[in-house]
Amino acid sequence: MSGKNASNRIEVRLAGEGGQGMILAGVILAEAAAIYDGKNVVQTQTYGPEARGGSSKAEVIISDEEIDYPEVINADILVAMSQEACDKYSSNIKKEGLLIVDSEKVRRVPLTNAVKLPITRLATEATGKSITANVVSLGVLVGLTNLVSRTAIQKAIIARAPKGTEELNQKALERGLAEAEAILAIKEKA
């Protein structure tokens, strides 16, 4: 997926459980696109009534043109960090869309071409903290799609990272980007 489509509107949904940081991931992605890459962006978010442990999703629409409808109609990209998120939103992905799942949290994946990575484990390996899984997932997303520039996502993460966690979050991003590069290298050989 090149990060462009015919209408130049890219719809992204980041979904998981409360506490996984997917809302923050949506804010970071939107800021990377708007502030650092100069694109038009709309970002919305929804929390389940339970907050932590309940479902949460962030939607980000990115376009070079004016955005006339502020919600995801059919996602170009879905990042699902829980089984509930995958079950709930995977039917709403475009036929040529990209589904990225945390393979240790999502066991039933409806699309055979989904990108399955143990995102939370990769975060723990890279940073010692599972809470950085949201940043690893952003690295995978950006590395696979070039939806925003690497410079933009790095700057947005640093701007949003809690004081003292900038280096940790940078390591998480680098791990996600490296995983994406490995996937693309395998696809090129195939």
Explain this structure to me?
The protein has 190 residues and is of the alpha/beta class. The protein has a single domain (9-183), classed as 3-Layer(aba) Sandwich (Pyruvate-ferredoxin Oxidoreductase, domain 3), CATH 3.40.920.10. It has helices spanning 22-36, 83-89, 119-127, 133-145, 150-160, 166-189; strands spanning 9-17, 40-47, 55-63, 75-80, 93-102, 115-117. Strands 2-3-1-4-5-6 form a six-stranded mixed β-sheet, sandwiched between helices. A hairpin with a 7-residue loop joins β2 (40-47) and β3 (55-63). The longest helix has 24 residues, at 166-189. The protein is globular. It starts with 8 loop residues before the first strand and ends with a helix. The model is unreliable at 1-6 (pLDDT under 50).
